[in-house]
């Protein structure tokens, strides 16, 4: 079974970001996940436009940009101009008055449109968006900080989205508290990819290399 493994770069070692990108590339990571936070939509500040630009310049791997910002439509051109065709941009539908307008800008720029669904956001409120996006990012924790605890009821939401994804034509990704147990349970059900942060990939125990960690995930018996 092929699943996509994406590195959550807000969890990386910023003391040597160039080395982190290189080691992750050599280990076989599929893409780099970049969390942009404005301190308003979520109670934290995270990666900046300059971080995005640097990582884009340092790798040929795809980028996933997760915009946790209020009214992304206002400044989305800044991010789109810093990406390559085929990169992914996720927005939160509740952060914008007319999210479909913002998603259309993503599509027109040649990027992959996606939405991120918070734990407290119901599927019913984003049903229309599911028909126009290519990717859906399910948050299994409240967004804003790394290392949070998994909210168990999210699993039921994921199960429902798995049933919808073929009809609606989107791919499904898991973000937050992503451990080996969640990958083992939800990859066979139909989740297409996982965002790897502090739980598995970064701050790893026993000094395991990125390559060893990614290989151990891909060796899981589904």
Secondary structure layout plus pairing:
Layout: E1 4-8, H1 17-27, E2 31-37, H2 49-58, E3 63-68, H3 76-80, E4 88-91, H4 99-108, E5 112-117, H5 127-130, E6 135-139, H6 154-168, E7 171-175, H7 180-186, E8 193-196, H8 210-218
Parallel strand pairs: 1-2, 1-8, 2-3, 3-4, 4-5, 5-6, 6-7, 7-8
Helix pairs in contact: 1-8
Describe this structure in words.
Helix 1 packs parallel to helix 8. The model has no long low-confidence stretch (mean pLDDT 91). This protein has eight helices and eight strands. Helix 4 links the parallel strand 4 and strand 5. It has an eight-stranded parallel beta barrel. Helices cover 32% and strands 19% of the residues. It is globular, with a radius of gyration of 16 Å. The protein has 222 residues and is α/β, with parallel strands linked by helices.
Brief account:
By secondary structure, the protein is of the alpha/beta class.
Identify the overall geometry. Answer: globular
- Please tally the β strands and state the result: 8
Classify the beta-strand content into a percent band.
15-25%
Q: How are the strands ordered across the major sheet?
A: 1-2-3-4-5-6-7-8
Rg of Cα set: 16 Å
Helix/sheet category: alpha/beta
Taking the alpha carbons of the first and last residues, their distance comes to 8 Å
State the helicity in percent bands.
25-40%
- Main beta sheet: 8 strands, parallel, barrel
Low-confidence regions: none
> Helix count, per DSSP?
8
Whole-number average pLDDT?
91
* SSE run: EHEHEHEHEHEHEHEH
Short descriptors:
about 220 residues, alpha/beta, 8-stranded parallel beta barrel, globular
């Amino acid at each position: 079974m092929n699943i996509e493994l994406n590195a959550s770069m807000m969890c990386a070692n910023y003391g040597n970001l160039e080395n982190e990108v290189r080691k992750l590339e050599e280990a076989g990571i599929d893409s780099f996940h970049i969390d942009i936070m404005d301190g308003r939509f979520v109670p934290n500040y995270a990666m900046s436009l300059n971080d995005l630009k640097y990582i884009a310049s340092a790798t040929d791997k795809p980028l996933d940009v997760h915009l946790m910002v209020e009214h992304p439509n206002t400044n989305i051109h800044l991010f789109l101009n810093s990406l390559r065709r085929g990169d992914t941009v996720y927005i939160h539908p509740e952060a914008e008055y007319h999210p479909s307008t913002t998603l259309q800008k993503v599509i027109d720029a040649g990027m992959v449109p996606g939405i991120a669904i918070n734990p407290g956001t119901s599927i019913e409120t984003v049903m229309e968006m599911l028909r126009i996006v290519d990717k859906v990012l399910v948050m299994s924790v409240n967004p804003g900080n790394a290392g949070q605890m998994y909210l168990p009821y999210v699993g039921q939401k994921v199960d429902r989205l798995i049933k919808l994804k073929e009809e609606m034509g989107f791919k499904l990704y898991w973000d937050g508290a992503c451990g080996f147990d969640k990958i083992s349970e939800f990859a066979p059900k139909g989740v297409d990819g996982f965002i790897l942060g502090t739980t598995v990939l970064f701050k790893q125990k026993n000094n395991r290399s990125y390559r060893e960690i990614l290989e151990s995930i891909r060796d899981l018996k589904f």
